[in-house]
């Protein structure tokens, strides 16, 4: 008699809750035991174990192990572009320090920016850059790194500065027509991208104004706490003694901006800028290059070795001033490996939850119980933010709610632009608040500030979804359409 494969069972509520309870237990335990050092391995282990629990639940329900493997492979394939972007960012930070690009940004920035309005200026600068190029990751990895470095020199808070960087960066990620998440959200909800952006303005602009105002107040409150100008002058002198400071050093930044505006894929644009910075360093920072690789006199060999090493393991220097050393001794592809480990574990766990119906088992009752428009909006937000927490990936948090709630919005006569705005407010902007989310992990690794430290200050990432949910309860800027009746739904 031939063996018939078992028909998989639908997951129970307990099946859906077990992996989430495991996640809460292991993440909470790792934070309790290791504190901020939990991101250096313990949380990664926790996420891998959670993925294992989700896999066992799927097998218990009758799914073959080959299905689990296929779902895991799909999860890793979905973050391929993020992997190359992260490695490219590591290389870029290394060569931008070698070429003096980041030191030059810091040198000029210290002389132009005042501690009293530094946080607000950071949010404004990053907002303009992100709107121009449409990428929060590129904004943070370039201008953001420099601004956090300037904060350290000025004696203002790097954590608040990182929050301001992210607030500005995600304004562009959410509302720029060049942003891939903006385009993806519009496509998933089936609305015109420019219609989507016009509706986004009603939450994005007020949230951004709130964020800038809060940062301005924070800056004024911290004026008396900043270091004296003598310390800053000493560090400026150290930078100018080690590096040749010139606007020429900013050419890698100009190249990156140009390539981004021309819509060159992010990983290629970043690598091109990193390589260009390395070549530039051979001409503009010859002494730095020779000292970095303990030169033997062969300029060509020294230059190639320096660029290669800066891209691989980062740039390193000893100036005798800890603040300067901490600023420029960074980067390298290997500095992103812990972050990649974190992302692999998180997206695999999230993909298993989605593929085997564990997320749907939790979301469907929430939809049924959301009787009012306000409750429905709150449910979408909870789903988007929750997916950022449990799935660890911004794209899952955008795509799944857009797909799941689209029909429900149509049934209730709510225009799809309401859902596209809400999905972006819920999925896009909350992603950098979660340490093991791909966006949170990237921002923490790139800016050199732990996600747990900057998260309280990412004001835009709180204000935008709160306004979106508030509009749902009040009816403000909620567009209506003819409800989709049962007959149309069947056809």
TrEMBL record:
Cellular localisation: Cell membrane
Keyword Oxidoreductase attributed: no
Membrane topology listed for this record: Multi-pass membrane protein
Keyword Acyltransferase annotated: no
Membrane spanning stretches: 12-36, 42-59, 71-96, 116-134, 205-223, 243-261, 268-293, 336-356, 376-397, 452-473
Chain ranges of the Na+/H+ antiporter NhaC-like C-terminal domain: 168-476
Keywords: Antiport, Cell membrane, Membrane, Transmembrane, Transmembrane helix, Transport
Cleaved signal peptide residues: none
The family this protein is said to belong to: Belongs to the NhaC Na(+)/H(+) (TC 2.A.35) antiporter family.
Protein name (Swiss-Prot/TrEMBL): Na+/H+ antiporter NhaC
Species in which this protein is naturally found: Nocardioides cavernae
